[in-house]
Amino acid sequence: xxxxxxxxxxxxxxxxxxxxxxxxxxxxxxxxxxxxxxxxxxxxxxxxxxxxxxxxxxxxxxxxxxxxxxxxxxxxxxxxxxxxxxxxxxxxxxxxxxxxxxxxxxxxxxxxxxxxxxxxxxxxxxxxxxxxxxxxxxxxxxxxxxxxxxxxxxxxxxxxxxxxxxxxxxxxxxxxxxxxxxxxxxxxxxxxxxxxxxxxxxxxxxxxxxxxxxxx
Length: 216
Prior knowledge:
This protein is α+β, with helices and mostly antiparallel strands. The chain is 35% helix and 17% strand. It has one domain. Strands 1, 2, 3, 4, 5 and 6 form a 6-stranded antiparallel beta sheet that branches. A hairpin with a 4-residue loop joins strand 5 (106-113) and strand 6. This is Ion-translocating oxidoreductase complex subunit G.
């Protein structure tokens, strides 16, 4: 009798353990999918903000490649999202990294139209000083909006810097390193896209991956 009781108790505990593990697995999968979807939607909103309305009929987040150009894009590999209308290239959106921000790397999202002008720039993540360098965030100031419509010809290449260095872009009071680094990174992104041209649209798209967002 005692043996049967022990076996019954063991079976019940085992059943609870199996059920618990299964419940955790299902919950984890559901939460993971929800997080991934939220990040995907957040990234979609960021892309929409730096592209002309109705400019594309594809999903750039599912039409992307990975490139290697650390000297210009600041990191070992960089995501490039292709924006198309039908078969025609409209723009590319890149995720360059500013390696030399004041307080560490700064991740950007930069859209470059097919004519070489900027569709816009946004900050995905940074560690800059609150009240100073964090003015690169659109929630802190409108500074980042000043890139829209700019190109390597407007301003001229030698004016791609902050005003303190003789350039065309504003710096922040008490914080020059951050805007200087961001301006240089955006300029280098434009140079990279100009060098690559339509080759960026010729590579086969990768299998869609998890899309990560960030603050900014």
